[in-house]
Amino acid sequence: MKKLLLWLFLAVSITAYAQIPSYYNDVNLSQSGTDLKDELATKVISTHTTYLSYTPGVWNALQQSDVNPNNSNEVILIYGHNDNDGNVKTDRTRGKYDNGGSVGDWNREHVFAKSLANPDLGTSGAGADAHNLRPCDFQQNSTRNNRKFGTGTGAAGFINSNGDWYPGDEWKGDVARMIMFMYIRYGNRCSPINVGTGSSVSIDNNMIDLFLQWNADDPVSTFEASRNDVIANIQGNRNPFIDNPAFATQIWGGPQAEDKFGNGGGDSGDGGGGNPGGSTDDLFFSEYIEGSSNNKALEIANFTGSTVNLSSYTIKKQTNGAGSWSSPYSLSGNLSNGNVYVIAHSSASSTIRNQADATTGTAIITFNGNDPVGLFKNNVLIDIIGDFNGGSSNFAQNVTLRRKASITSPNTSYTEAEWDEYATDTSSNLGSHSVNGGGSGSGTTAGSTTVLHEGFFESGLDGWVDGGGDCYRYSGSRSYEGNYSVRIRDNSGTASSMTLNNVNVAAYDEVEVEFYFYAYSMESGEDFWLRYYNGSSWQTVRAYRSGTDFQNNNFYSSKVTLSSANYNFTSNAKFRFQCDASANADEIYIDQVKITGIINASARMNSEPTKSSDITLLSVSPEEDELAVNEDFTIYPNPVVNQLEIKIFAAENASYKIHNLFGQVVKVGNLQNKTLNVSNLKAGMYILQVNDGDEILTKKFMKK
Length: 704
Prior knowledge:
Structural class: alpha+beta
Protein name: Extracellular ribonuclease/nuclease fusion protein
Region (Disordered): 254-277, 425-445
GO molecular function: hydrolase activity; nuclease activity
Family: Belongs to the EndA/NucM nuclease family.
Helix content: 10-25%
Keywords: Hydrolase, Nuclease, Signal
């Protein structure tokens, strides 16, 4: 919403988000994709404490939340734009108490139309959620009826032969954020694809690019933000997408929306729509051959400036432009800078196969002109050929497509202008590619780098070995990236360590180890080590000492360089992080480890690891007491069939409630033996709330 009190907007916007609202203190905002979506859903469901009646509850709420800031006797009308054109239907304001069902009245507009939900929203529960209701002129409300939203410009009204409804330039962002709220609050009952016309994004078939675009195009106004505050005071929950529109970008990708919290989000999702999703330092598709018979091939180019380990990359296909992505086709090996990697059909012509680095007859290479193909890194879409969910129409049948030399970045939105088209079975340029300002050379150049290992720990230990009882893979807010890190504690030798085996560093002049860490309860002088195994013995490369190198409850990054002049580089090297503290409560959390080999780095050949400049303070964590409470609250198994076990440091008289995703309380009681029998619950997702007398803790679980 773009209008209303410009002077007030300027005054308030300076200070309104100096810090993230305390409402989100127990939400891990560093997540992305469906993880962040689930986290926010848990929050808005568990904090929805007051359920309004449709009459008089909703009337009363809207008379508070939608008051005209210029006249407290009026409300603002959604879809309205002009109070002075003599047409009451287009009015933007109306008397606060002029509500009802006659011409000249305002009534309650369900932005997510009741009948477009499945099942129908009705007029209680979800149908009386004030986050989805707005004052609207009686006639305008009737005209919109249950029409889907569609793209347009100008004032509200019909915009195409389908009868789609455009809410108006001033209101499209408000609408998008309300739809997003309803989706995370009520799940698939309120799927965005059922209330708007657009293309699904690849990470979530229920979300469409229309609402992501509107969210970015029309920023949050002071009125919209104030309305969110009022409803939060009435219902208990907030609309996160009003507080920070960039959450949508973090979850679903698409165009970058306003980032009020300053925690990024543009490269987190893998949405299928919107602006280019890659960067100049990543791989991209450079050629696509869809020829006669089995003459099919894909080419991937590397102009990142470094050799890239392909193990993080996969290719997926969407058959006939519908349904989900296929199972991934995994790439392997290393791709040096300036070179390409070709995957060809195993029955393609010899001309094509002679250029191939890999051949296969699997479905990934049997595209036929209407099958979008995506390049994924760590399961996040970074480049695409074809439109995801584009349907059965052909975008590239019986043609060769070659990326233009001016294109140096991947793009999660297929753009025809980025490609040159050639006749069927053209393969004369397969096996090489050039970009403006670059070349198509091969081989290793001076100062070249190769990523030997990356460990993010989101799906496992990523090759690291758990040393024993004082090391484990941890999920929680002490992880720097994503949800997971590895915790080491105490001083139990290898049991307090994590080890990466069989790293071939023999060919390199230097090896760089970069990682992120968080310390908890480490006493002054206690330390942890980065160690290196040279084929015959262990050496401590760097010791990190509490009180000198780091403080507790902060995130740090560290980058250490080993030189072949000082260490024996071998083909079976090992790396180890080891804690040397004094008790189980003294903990280090290791995350996002990257090991890089460097060739011809003579300028630094004889350098030793520095003792202070290699550590960077990244951020100060929230109060650790608060974090510790949440992390001492765990449930298992999840998903659960019958018995849900609860680990929590809480008073013996702690009480609990279980909500379904509609906000209904389905089970209550006192938490006595820390085991809940949930066998009678229907299959689905639930929210567990535990009240220990001091605060309410929440966890989401799945009942099988």
